[in-house]
Design a protein that fits this description.
Layout lengths: L27 H16 L4 H19 L1 E5 L14 E5 L14 E5 L8 E8 L4 E4 L7 E2 L2 E2 L17 E4 L4 E5 L21 E2 L3 E10 L5 E2 L4 H4 L18
Antiparallel strand pairs: 1-2, 2-11, 3-4, 3-11, 4-9, 5-6, 5-8, 6-7, 9-10, 11-12
C-alpha cells in the first residue's frame, strides 16, 4: 500500500479583494488638469490677474471679429444724430442669417473701389429694385412712388437734396445718403461713376445699433417709421431709360 502522502492541490486563487481605496493620489490625468492653471499663472508676470486680462482680451477679439465692433464716426456727414468722434456699436450679425439691409438702416460698409479706401457710415435710402427720385413737389425724396418725410433725422436747415436724381437701384446694391446732406459725400456724388454710387450688399460690415461713447450720448439707433411705409416695388411707374444709373 502506497503510504506516501499525496500532495495537496495548491490554491492558486487571489485573496479576496478588500474595499476600494479612494483615498490614494489622484491619477496623472486628473493631476495634470488641476495643475494646469497654477502652472500657467506661475509662468506669467502678474499671475492670475494677467491671465484674467488675457482671457478678457481674447473674448473681446472674438466678439469684435464675429459679432460686433465699435466704429468711430469720422466726419459730420451723419449729423444730427451722429457727431464726429461718437462711437457706435456695429452689429455684424444683423444681416448674416436673415434679410439684407432695409430702408432707413444706418450701415457701415467697406467703400474700397466705390467710395474710397476706408469704411463709411450712411443711411440706406433705396434697396435693390427701388426707384428713388429727388424730389417731389414739396422737395422730399420719393421711393417707389411714396414721398418720405426725413425731417426727424435730417440735419436742421438741410434739404433732402440739392442734387436731382432719378435712379433704379440694381439688385444686390444699396443707395445710401448721409443725414447731413449738405456735408455728405454719398451715392449722389457718384451717379456717373462705375457702379453708379450704389454700394454692394456684400460690402456691408453691419448695422449701427447704438451710440456707446460718450456715455452721456449713449442711445439706440432705430429705423425711422417713414421708411416702413414705403412699398416694396413701384410696378406702375415708368422706369428711367436704361434702368437707371450704374
Amino acid at each position: 500500500m502506497d503510504t506516501e502522502a499525496q500532495p495537496t492541490e495548491r490554491d492558486r486563487s487571489f485573496p479576496p479583494a478588500g474595499p476600494e481605496d479612494t483615498s490614494g493620489p489622484v491619477g496623472l490625468e486628473g493631476r495634470s488638469r488641476s495643475a494646469l492653471v497654477p502652472r500657467i499663472t506661475r509662468s506669467l508676470p502678474g499671475g492670475r490677474i494677467t491671465l484674467a486680462l488675457l482671457l478678457c482680451l481674447l473674448f473681446l477679439l472674438a466678439v469684435n471679429t464675429l459679432v460686433a465692433r465699435p466704429f468711430e464716426i469720422p466726419s459730420r456727414s451723419m449729423e444730427r444724430g451722429l457727431r464726429a468722434g461718437d462711437r457706435v456699436l456695429v452689429n455684424k450679425l444683423a444681416y448674416r442669417f436673415g434679410d439684407g439691409p432695409e430702408r432707413g438702416d444706418v450701415i457701415v460698409f467697406d467703400g474700397t473701389g466705390y467710395f474710397g479706401d476706408a469704411d463709411y457710415i450712411k443711411r440706406v435710402v433705396g434697396v435693390g429694385g427701388d426707384h428713388v427720385v429727388c424730389c417731389d413737389g414739396e422737395g422730399r425724396i420719393r421711393v417707389n412712388g411714396r414721398s418720405v418725410d426725413e425731417s426727424g433725422f435730417l440735419f436742421p436747415g438741410d434739404s433732402p437734396s440739392t442734387v436731382p436724381f432719378d435712379v433704379v437701384v440694381p439688385d444686390g446694391r444699396l443707395f445710401v445718403l448721409g443725414d447731413h446732406r449738405s456735408d455728405s459725400s454719398d451715392s449722389r456724388d457718384r451717379l456717373g461713376s462705375p457702379g453708379g454710387g450704389m454700394v454692394p450688399v456684400d460690402e456691408v460690415i453691419g448695422r449701427a445699433d447704438g451710440i456707446v461713447w460718450p456715455f452721456d450720448r449713449a442711445t439706440g439707433l432705430h429705423r425711422p417709421d417713414s421708411y416702413a411705409r414705403v412699398p416694396d416695388r413701384e410696378a406702375d411707374v415708368v422706369r428711367p431709360a436704361g434702368g437707371g444709373h450704374g
